[in-house]
């Protein structure tokens, strides 16, 4: 079973175009072999016309297979290495240097002075040496990137970039680690066949047949990168490792992805920039921003007070001592406090589930609230969850299409990617229990179920 799964995964990763070219090559070679055999038979029988026809067919088929398969394989295997080996960019200093080389070359040709030819050869050799030296500096270097595990929008975190030089004798000079490079080449338009239906005529639809149409392939939106600023390593000795700390600040919540890095150097003369791409994938989920504003800090004691007032009852923990009322049983009378004050005092206890709280994020419809108000509401939900969890409150969560556990970071991961969507309000199906609810919603107070008013604190998204 495991072998079958491995074979299936390997076949799934193989390019469909490669399979198509492989089948075409096998068929072409088989037909070429048959044509060659037929040409031999025709030659032995003395039919020169058939011999020439079958031999020509065999040669054409073999040549066609070579034209179809060999350049494709070269592009897939050899061309990528060759392109990486010759991946250079000329700098401003290099352009100025080439201008001087051009002037010296023109002067050498006009004067036929041997000294100028020697100077010209030395200057051209310096460019070649610069290319080989920069390529030698980057060869064999290893990169390791550590992205933070937990990150909140608007709060700086630290990432680490390590550059390892495993070579025995050759050090690395002036190496720059880039997260991405601007691609000057225009992206090729990709097309794909999509299933459609052939309808004739369009108004009456007498005939409906399956059909295919060639349409432009939709490119998936690219996620923003994790690392943006370059990191510079001046010198890395042989058999040594250099590490740099990178301060990361994310302006918005959501998913971030890094699919590769570039090592580049201008060593030794800064005429050329040699780059080498390293495939290193990193993913990061940035949680919503945590609010520290005065408005939010004023909201916390109000929710805490409503929570405790609603849930006081007959538990084991003393809540307060108050005046006796006719409804209070005699077993709750505090005789010591009564003797001190001269009037009956009773003890009031808190319930066992006093610390239970439920945060409800009622997602809004698209366009129901402004984008800034929606992001603020998401941050309010994340901040309340983070604050009350750290205070030891037993917090649970409820939201549309939220199936995570009652753990803080599962709910934060949901809030990190949530967007307004067309769905029913969770308030209609919210089960009523012993929890005190903090509801963040865009619904007007008149549309909120009446049963939630006595055990909830409502926060409007538009506020």
Structure description:
This protein is of the alpha+beta class. It folds into four domains: about 70 residues; about 160 residues, Immunoglobulin-like (Sandwich); about 130 residues, no CATH class; about 40 residues, no CATH class. A hairpin with a 6-residue loop joins β6 and β7. The N terminus is likely disordered.
**What do we call the CATH homologous superfamily of the largest domain?**
Immunoglobulins
Query: Sheet with the most strands?
Result: 5 strands, antiparallel
**Overall helicity:** 25-40%
CATH T-level fold name of the largest domain: Immunoglobulin-like
The secondary structure category is alpha+beta
Please give a handful of descriptors for the protein shown:
463 residues; alpha+beta; Immunoglobulin-like; 4 domains; 5-stranded antiparallel sheet; 4-stranded parallel sheet; 20 strands; disordered N terminus
What's the short story on this structure?
With 463 residues, the chain is an alpha+beta fold.
Please describe the topology of this protein:
Layout: H1 2-13, H2 16-45, H3 48-85, E1 88-90, H4 92-111, H5 114-138, E2 142-146, E3 151-152, E4 157-165, E5 172-178, E6 191-200, E7 207-216, E8 231-236, E9 240-248, E10 254-258, E11 261-265, E12 272-278, E13 282-287, H6 294-310, E14 312-313, E15 317-323, H7 335-341, E16 345-350, E17 356-361, H8 371-390, E18 394-398, H9 408-417, E19 436-441, E20 456-460
Parallel strand pairs: 3-13, 17-18, 17-19, 19-20
Antiparallel strand pairs: 1-12, 2-4, 4-9, 5-8, 5-11, 6-7, 10-13, 11-12, 14-16, 15-16
Helix pairs in contact: 2-3, 4-5, 8-9
